[in-house]
Specification:
With about 325 residues, this protein is α/β, with parallel strands linked by helices. The chain contains 11 helices and 13 strands. The strands form 3 sheets. Strands 3-4-5-9-10-11-12-13 form an 8-stranded parallel β-barrel, surrounded by 6 helices. Strands 6-8-7 form a 3-stranded antiparallel beta sheet, with no helix packed on it. The protein has a two-stranded antiparallel ribbon with strand order 1-2. The longest helix has 17 residues. This is Aldo/keto reductase.
Length: about 325
Amino acid sequence: MEYRKLGNTDLELSAITYGAFAIGGNMWGGNEKKDSIASVRASIDNGVTTLDTAPFYGFGLSEEMIGEAIKGYDRSKIQLLTKFGLVWDGSNQGKGEFFFDAEEAGKTIPVYKYASKASVIKEVEDSLKRLQTDYIDLLQIHWPDATTPISETMEALEILLQQGKIRAAGVSNYSVEQVAEARKSLNIASNQIGYSMLNRGVENDLVPYTLENDLGIIVYSPMERGLLTGKYFKDGKLKDNDHRNGYFQQFDLEKVKTFLETITPIAEDKNATLSQLVLRWTSLQPAITVVLAGARNAEQAAANAKAMDINLTAEELAFINTELSKI
């Protein structure tokens, strides 16, 4: 495993980071708790020291399982990354900017983007309890909240830094303009964004900006929620409540299928899977600090970690990029 410094902090994160969205259950068709916990532990055992979660993932369930899974490990050698700013119940229900209606156990749950100072501080206390820890290594706003001044949100993060409840502060899904605004109030460490072979728009603006300003980029959805594994084209049936049924329709699936077939020989030559090749390619792109990879079981988790063992030549990278330009 390779470990990388995050932006302007002293945090050293594993280049492949465990993404805990799917183990929360909501929007992914569910998962067995024992498999989820086993996947976290297998990640750690294979050098993935960094775990990224959020309160919204399973409405607290993902954080709870992370907290349970890391029992017995040296906490100082694990980096816990979580988020705030998506609220769905309690005193904050209905406040902020309506985001969408989530479905959980047959119920419709309205989710709002809300990041007021008081709300952020309360959310962190709840996350610390669920994670069973007394500090968070990196705390990130989950989505921009148009109803709260960015400066107010950053003020809350500054308080939490001073209290020692978080080691570093970052943002997620922020534009260059929003990142610049946040940096007027707080020296944030990173921006977590969606990025993949099929989603490279940030290379035009955010990537140059972060390189110039010593910010880290944490990438989510590098596999485009499983599409780039190639499995969908072999067995395209997803559970009815799986959000990917609609998500995949934004892509030209025939071109994606052809692309994956074209780069498969590279993976085979490396004795690797398509998933591992895609993760490794993503980790080698400019300004990318770490790549989030989800896993539903221990086998997938171990395979994700081994992606960093792949050596790609300049010629192979150029070939992949040429084929990508045809999609």
